[in-house]
Amino acid sequence: MSYAERSREYYLETGTRFPRLIIWAIGLVKASAARANAELGLLDEGLASCIYEEALRLSQGLYDYEVTVDVFQTGSGTGLNMNVNEVIASHARKRCNREVHPNDHVNMGQSSNDVVPTAIRVAAYKAVSNLVIPAARSMASSLRARASEYMELVKPGRTHLRDALPVTFGMELEAYADALEGDATMIERGLREAPGGPARRHGRGHRP
């Protein structure tokens, strides 16, 4: 019995599946690991190539229907990691016409505790880079354009729901624009942070 089948016995079954962006990202993680393991001489080139190609196909959405574990499962994401390992191994086995083990080969040198956080960060990086940051900067630009129109419109300032010194409506819009620009910059800096290492950071199952 596969891990995905066992997980349906032991964990919640809400029908909520992992979003496409997460599957895209974890496929890239598995493809990258296969290539790295080949370069380290831990997997032979033929086997690594099969795993790499099938991981990319998973990333492209060709096997989404086989990623069946519920999003509500273990805290470490082991269910997702093992489900993906089994899907890739199954298709790599057909491609190579040889034994491909989901844990010993596809998951070589990896742990759910680094695979899943890395996939989350890769997915978040794409979503934030392509959607959040551009949206924040576009909004800031729109606010600045409006601010110039209302720079002479004086209104009471407000502090703790009480009237304060007068400001212009344009000044308030400029302040919101500055806040959005600052947030976008801080998010960009946060994108540079790297995930941690292998399981519990003790290095087991991991080559330096």
Index terms:
two-stranded antiparallel sheet, elongated, 2 domains, 208 residues, 2 strands, Fumarase C, Chain B, domain 1, mainly alpha, single chain
CATH superfamily of the largest domain: Fumarase/aspartase (N-terminal domain)
Q: State the helical fraction.
A: 55-70%
Q: Largest sheet at a glance?
A: 2 strands, antiparallel
**Which class do the helix and strand fractions yield?**
mainly alpha
What Rg do the Cα atoms give? 24 Å
CATH architecture of the largest domain, please?
Orthogonal Bundle
Describe this structure in words.
This protein is mainly α. The chain has two domains: 3-110, Fumarase/aspartase (N-terminal domain) (Fumarase C, Chain B, domain 1); 126-190. The chain contains seven helices and two strands; from the N terminus they run ααααααββα. The protein has a two-stranded antiparallel sheet. Helix 3 packs across helix 4 (78-96).
Summarize the structure.
Strands 1-2 form a two-stranded antiparallel ribbon.
Question: Secondary-structure map with pairings?
Answer:
Blueprint: H1 3-10, H2 20-39, H3 45-59, H4 78-96, H5 102-106, H6 112-149, E1 154-159, E2 162-168, H7 169-190
Antiparallel strand pairs: 1-2
Helix pairs in contact: 2-3, 2-6, 3-4, 4-6, 6-7
